[in-house]
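Deliverable D2.4 — example input (structure tokens):
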């Protein structure tokens, strides 16, 4: 595996791959890798001839009061994992390499899809994500980019910016990798104490409660939402940020759910220190 600290070296290496008629799969990450990230690498290896990854904790997507400085990092371990997973090239830029002039003056914002849910709790977050992802796509060049459904709203934002800007990227969404008890893998799970780790399954339990309500015939989003809210309220160590019922493709609200609809239930909650996200696909019976 070639480790590239500079944009120029990473870009040149991928241009060489494509010149040799090898397609590129790309997996952008913020590091502190787990099996969820490795599932994206595995998918990229299926979709393309050579896999490239990036590790960059992007300051643009953290608000001043968020956990940028404390975000967990272990570059040596990450590089061993990527190497063992068969990654060919990894970009590990410094903040100066990515943003040499200090704060950026150019910013990518994806309207509407960035509003609500994560956007409501973290107002500048998706502008930071969309800007760095656009920049990483410009650096990587034509590729198949693998993103996790774990960050479902982010995936929608990325799909839309690629379509709107005609970027030469095919976006592939990958299923959420979970612990056996249902907790979605996340770099931030490392912050959980033992008690909080047990309590953190409440996000998945809330989603299951919402899915059960739909399966039992409930068609009011408000009632499905209430099933999720009540589940989180029953866990003293958790504090709910949002529980939402959305159209899976557009992320629009669906007050009355039609038969056959493809929904996505989404929750965010703080459990002790970390704020955790999860979501679940639900198909409404015909
Ligand atoms: P991050 O390092 O948190 O920015 O995540 C990098 C990529 O890994 C994003 O596309 C995430 O959606 C994806 N990812 C994170 N956790 C999981 C998971 N549990 N299952 C699948 N993909 C994940």
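Example output (designed residues):
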């Amino acid at each position: 595996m070639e480790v590239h600290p500079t944009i120029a070296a990473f870009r040149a290496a991928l241009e060489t791959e494509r010149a040799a008629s090898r397609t590129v799969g790309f997996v952008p990450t913020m590091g502190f890798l787990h099996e969820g990230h490795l599932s994206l690498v595995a998918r990229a290896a299926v979709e393309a001839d050579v896999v490239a990854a990036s590790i960059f904790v992007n300051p643009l997507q953290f608000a001043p009061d968020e956990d940028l400085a404390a975000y967990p990092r272990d570059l040596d371990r990450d590089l061993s994992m990527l190497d063992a997973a068969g990654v060919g090239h990894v970009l590990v830029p410094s903040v100066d390499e990515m943003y040499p002039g200090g704060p950026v003056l150019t910013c990518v914002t994806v309207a509407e899809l960035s509003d609500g849910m994560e956007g409501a709790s973290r107002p500048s977050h998706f502008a930071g994500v969309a800007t760095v992802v656009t920049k990483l796509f410009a650096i990587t060049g034509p590729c198949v980019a693998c993103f996790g459904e774990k960050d479902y709203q982010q995936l929608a934002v990325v799909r839309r910016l690629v379509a709107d800007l005609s970027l030469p990227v095919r976006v592939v969404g990958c299923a959420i990798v979970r612990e056996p008890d249902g907790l979605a893998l996340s770099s931030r799970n490392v912050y959980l104490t033992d008690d909080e780790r047990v309590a953190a399954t409440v996000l998945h339990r809330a989603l299951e409660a919402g899915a059960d309500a739909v399966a039992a015939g409930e068609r009011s989003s408000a009632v499905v939402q209430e099933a999720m809210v009540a589940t989180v309220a029953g866990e003293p160590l958790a504090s709910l940020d949002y529980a939402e019922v959305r159209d899976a493709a557009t992320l629009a609200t669906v007050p009355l759910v039609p038969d056959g609809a493809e929904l996505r239930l989404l929750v965010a909650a703080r459990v002790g220190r970390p704020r955790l996200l999860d979501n679940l696909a639900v198909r409404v019976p015909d």
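The radius of gyration is 19 Å.
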